[in-house]
Every structure is written in C-alpha cells, then in structure tokens.
Design brief:
30% helix, alpha/beta, eight-stranded mixed β-sheet, eight-stranded parallel β-sheet
Length: 384
C-alpha cells in the first residue's frame, strides 16, 4: 500500500496494530502530533498555541500537548472539566466559544478561567456579571470563508464597528478589554486571508486607542491546514507570511499573539480504518459502482458534507482502477460521502476489503454520532 504521510517503518507499525482491530476505528500517532507541535512552535515563535480541544479531545492527545507546554481553547464546560481532570492549569485555558449559558460562564469563572471570547452585547453583559474582571477578546467577522474548505465565519463574529462598541462596553462594565480574535476558516489555503483579518484588527486597535483603550491580545484562531488531497503550503511558509503581515500592521508594538491550532496538529496523525460492506450498481449498464462502507457521514466523516474535505484514501488492493461513489452504512440518504468527487479504486475491490482514510485525526471521532442507527461512536486507539 502507498503511504503518503508516515515513514515506511512507522506506517508498518500503525498498520500492524490496525489490522488486529475491528473496523471502523481511528488510530492516532502521538509521535506525529508531537512533531507537528514542534514544527508549529518553530514556524510561529511569536505566538502561543491554544490547542482547539474540539479537534480531537482524546485524553492521551491532551496529555501529550499539555506535557509539551501547549495552552488550550475550549468550547464548553465539559472540555474544561476534562482538561482540569488532566491537571491543566486554568491560566492555560481560554473559553473561546462566543455562545455560552450564564451558568456555564459562572462555572468556568469559579474554576479559575479568566480569558473569554465574545461577539455580542448580551454575552458581554453576562461576562461582566458572572466573570467580573476577566479578560475579553471580541471576535470579528472575516472574509476568509470564501477560500476555506470548511467555512466558519457566518455564525461567529461581528463587524468592526460593533467590535469597537463591545470592547468599550466591556471596559465600562469592569471587564478587561483585552483584544480581538478572528478565524479565517478551517483548512484555509489562502494565506492572504490572515493579511485581510490582521488589517481589520489594526483598525479596531486604532479606534480604541483614540478612546484610551489599548488592546493587548490578537487571537488569530485556527485555519492552518492538514494534508488532504489538495496542495497546501507548509507551516513554515504560513508562519513567515503571517509574521510579515503582523509586522506590516503593528511593527515593533506587537501585542500578545495567540493561535488556536486544531486540524494542523492532529489531522495528519490519524488513520481511519474502514471495511467495504457492499458493492453494487444501480442498473446493469450503470457506469459507476457504489461502494458502501462501515464508516459514513454519521460515523466520523461528517466533513465530507458538501464534499468539503477530501481525504487521501488507500486501498489494500492494487491493479486497474475505476471511479466509484462512496457511501456510508446508515439508512439515511444523506449518508453519501463522495458522489461528484470521484475516488478511483481497484476494480478488484471486494466486500470485506479494507480502505484506509489518511489524515483523519481531526474532527472525526469528535464528530461521530452516539447511536445513530444503533452504530456506536468511532473507536479511537492511540499509539506512542
């Protein structure tokens, strides 16, 4: 089998382990996560990583990143409890979700969280009441979704004018108007998206400075890519370009920089093993075969929705190939993985054969359903 991500020795080790486990399952390589973290620190020496726990919340992943010195971005109090249970200090945790219940804000504050993100007046007032004196970053809208494989901005963020108003309100209410955060979209190939977003941050900083408020944080969110089927720059190229954008807009007065890597740290470290359940054609003269697998949209490959994320796929068979349509096992017509984007698989493919999905360490196990059609959540194994 071809190995697009791992060394031959490591690939053989991962395959030998995987072949002993029933499908579907995910195998995560902690060695590669550590390598990606070190590469990230080298490419972004000016920034502190806050790992986005939602990307892959497996305890062993979190423990490894904690040991390496990472901070963490959480989306819920449940992720908070998991981190605290692993010994992560509250000072190394940011509550980045702008949508949160007042009682969850109070809970996080009670556990020692003092850095929050927001994008609305109601949430700012909640923070002032339930988390007095905390640092607040306001999230702004960006245009990066137009070039990101997995867009994020429509639901989160506010316009620049509102960001200024919200940070002024935070200051009036006794919060620390700390900074601006943004997200240019997940799996962002266009490095220029950061340039546009940082320029907006400069505008907000200047407007607030004229009102006596100095911002101390720029949280650039996530967006750094994993290795799928399309071409992407390496992390060093991203780091050098984004450093240049920051220097152009802020010069020597660079605030504290936060990044929230998720996909870029854990995606490439995952291999998802699946099995061919059925192969069929819709008519005797149909041009394409349908290949049904024991993994689908609801089992962990939800980022195939709209055929947005296109993973590298490895077959255990060789020989002449043909285009196929890939679908999952559930009784739901939405459970079609790839119909327009054609994967070429061996004509010799049979029921019971395995297919391996590469770079599936991010947003697979954490997205899998609890019991849709009775199927259990995606099983994850972690190798040192």
């Amino acid at each position: 089998m071809e190995n697009p991500t791992f060394s031959p020795e490591r690939w053989n080790t991962l395959m030998a382990f995987s072949e002993q486990q029933p499908t579907p399952h995910l195998v995560v390589d902690l060695q590669l996560i550590e390598q990606r973290y070190q590469e990230l620190r080298g490419a972004f020496p000016m920034a502190m990583p806050y790992y986005a726990v939602k990307a892959n919340p497996h305890p062993e992943v979190l423990k490894r990143l904690h040991r390496l010195g990472s901070c963490f971005d959480i989306a819920s109090i449940y992720e908070l409890d998991k981190l605290l249970g692993l010994g992560v200090e509250p000072a190394r945790i940011s509550y980045g979700n702008t949508i949160k219940k007042p009682r969850d804000v109070a809970y996080a504050y009670g556990k020692g969280i003092r850095l929050f993100s927001s994008d609305s007046e109601a949430d700012i007032r909640t923070l002032a009441e339930k988390a007095p004196g905390s640092e607040v970053c306001v999230r702004i809208l960006t245009e990066g979704d137009q070039t990101a494989d997995w867009p994020l901005s429509r639901k989160f963020g506010c316009h620049v004018d509102m960001a200024v108003e919200l940070l002024c309100l935070a200051d009036e209410l006794g919060l620390k108007a700390a900074g601006i955060c943004f997200h240019v979209g997940s799996q962002q190939r266009n490095i220029g998206a950061w340039d546009d977003a940082i320029a907006k941050v400069r505008v907000v900083c200047d407007r607030l400075a004229s009102q006596g408020i100095t911002l101390s944080i720029i949280n650039m969110g996530g967006g750094l890519p994993g290795t799928y089927t399309g071409k992407v720059h390496d992390v060093q190229t991203y780091g050098e370009s984004i450093q240049r954008f920051l220097n152009e807009d802020f010069g020597d007065e660079l605030p504290r920089i936060i990044i929230e890597p998720g996909r870029s740290l854990v995606a490439d470290a995952g291999i998802l093993a699946s099995e061919v359940v059925l192969i069929s054609r819709k008519s005797r003269d149909a041009l394409e075969r349908w290949v049904f697998l024991d993994i689908g949209v609801f089992g962990g490959l939800i980022e195939s929705l709209g055929e947005a994320i296109k993973y590298q796929l490895v077959s255990t068979r060789d020989g002449e190939t043909e285009d196929v349509i890939l679908a999952g096992p559930t009784c739901d017509s939405m459970d079609i993985l790839y119909e327009r984007h054609k994967y070429a698989l061996p004509k010799s493919l049979e029921r019971g054969d395995r297919l391996y999905w590469i770079s599936t360490g991010a947003y697979t196990s954490s997205y899998s359903s609890v019991e849709f059609n009775g199927f259990p959540p995606l099983k994850t194994y972690v190798l040192e």
